[in-house]
Amino acid sequence: MNRSKILVVIMIAAMFAVLLTGCGGGNDVNQSDLVGDWEMIGIEFMGEFESVENMFEGVGDEPFSILYNFRTDGTGEISGLGETFDFIWTVSAGAVTLVHDGESVEMQYRIAGNRLYLTDAVFDDETMVFERR
């Protein structure tokens, strides 16, 4: 399996890990700082950045996109791969927690400029990188 296909598998696994578990934080970001739309632009894996375009080049006919929408009321939505999932989110002590279908996931996060970085505890050597839309 080539590197791009391995990253695709890891990327999809990370997305579903978030959907089926929770998210935790890394800096002093207020809940309001997360509000809005964040589109995944790539992944940092073992110290290297790989763009979504490169990871999914030649895979399927449609451009690949994962979008997180954090609403002010503490609800949100993840859309991608033709699916949409609702979640509830909270920020506490620098952590963001997502709850979907009774399951929660905690991820490390930081915001730098217009970028959001989410690192799942399960995939601690992998960070999903998003840009504010």
Topology:
Layout: H1 3-20, H2 31-34, E1 36-45, E2 48-51, H3 52-55, E3 66-70, E4 75-80, E5 83-92, E6 95-100, E7 103-112, E8 115-120, E9 126-132
Antiparallel strand pairs: 1-2, 1-3, 1-9, 3-4, 4-5, 5-6, 6-7, 7-8, 8-9
Kindly summarize this structure in a few lines.
The chain has about 130 residues and is α+β, with helices and mostly antiparallel strands. About 20% of the residues lie in helices and about 50% in strands.
The stretches of 5 or more residues where confidence is low (pLDDT under 50) are 1-10, 16-27
Proportion in β-strands: over 45%
Shape: globular
The CATH architecture is Beta Barrel
Rg, please?
Answer: 14 Å
CATH class identity: Mainly Beta
Distance N to C terminus? 33 Å
**In the CATH scheme, what's the topology name?**
Lipocalin
Q: How much helix is in the residues?
A: 10-25%
How many strands in all?
9
What number of domains?
1
**Kindly state the mean pLDDT as a whole number?**
78
The biggest beta sheet is recorded as: 8 strands, antiparallel, barrel
| SS summary, helix count | 3
Instruction: Provide the structure class.
Output: alpha+beta
User: Strand order within the widest sheet?
Assistant: 1-3-4-5-6-7-8-9
Order of helical and strand elements: HHEEHEEEEEEE
Describe what you observe in this structure.
- It contains 3 helices and 9 strands.
- With 133 residues, it is of the alpha+beta class.
- It has a single domain, classed as Beta Barrel (Lipocalin), CATH 2.40.128.
- An 8-stranded antiparallel β-barrel has the order 1-3-4-5-6-7-8-9.
- The chain is globular and about 40 Å long.
